[in-house]
């Protein structure tokens, strides 16, 4: 019906083999009704070889987009109607972690799509993965809290309550225990 948005991630296993996974997400009409339904499909899961720089990742990512006919539909729509608004509606947003090579990949992808007369804005179409943002924030809080705890010289005389008051990690644990105690699911 409109945009096809993508979530993608690259990671390495314990043997240093790199992998790319990409999911497509779109809204479709439920056949025979006016209802809409969110659809999701795995469009690629494969081993990555070579460099993981932005240019190589963009060239790698555009191939499964072509195979899934996301970019083909866009080009066909442009030839059919000569309407730029239809073109920009097909390739949607990309949800990615905030690795530096992903920013470069989006800029190279913008260039590849522009060369195909597909409107795509790398900055506006990148969404930072919420889970990665929370993870990075949590690491900063933990690092800062650990530095605070390590700088205390002698806290052996503190009660649990006093330790929780000066240690954000202990305070967080207390909050989790209270929530669990409430029986909230």
Could you characterize the architecture of this molecule?
The structure is a single chain. The chain is α/β, with parallel strands linked by helices and 185 residues long. It is built from seven helices and five strands, in the order βββαααβαβααα. The chain has a five-stranded mixed β-sheet with strand order 3-2-1-4-5. Helix 1 (54-67) crosses helix 4 and helix 6 (160-166) packs across helix 7.
Task: Provide keyphrases for this structure.
single chain; alpha/beta; 2 domains; 7 helices
Quantity of strands, as a count: 5
Strand content: 15-25%
Distance between the termini: 36 Å
Mean pLDDT: 79
Strands of the largest sheet, in order across it? 3-2-1-4-5
Shape: extended
The biggest sheet amounts to: 5 strands, mixed
Summed up, the helix count is 7
Radius of gyration in whole Å, from Cα? 23 Å
Topology:
Layout (H helix, E strand, L loop, with lengths): L3 E9 L5 E12 L6 E13 L5 H14 L2 H12 L2 H5 L2 E6 L3 H16 L10 E3 L1 H22 L8 H7 L1 H14 L4
Parallel strand pairs: 1-4, 4-5
Antiparallel strand pairs: 1-2, 2-3
What's this, in brief?
By secondary structure, the protein is α/β, with parallel strands linked by helices. It is built from seven helices and five strands, in the order βββαααβαβααα.
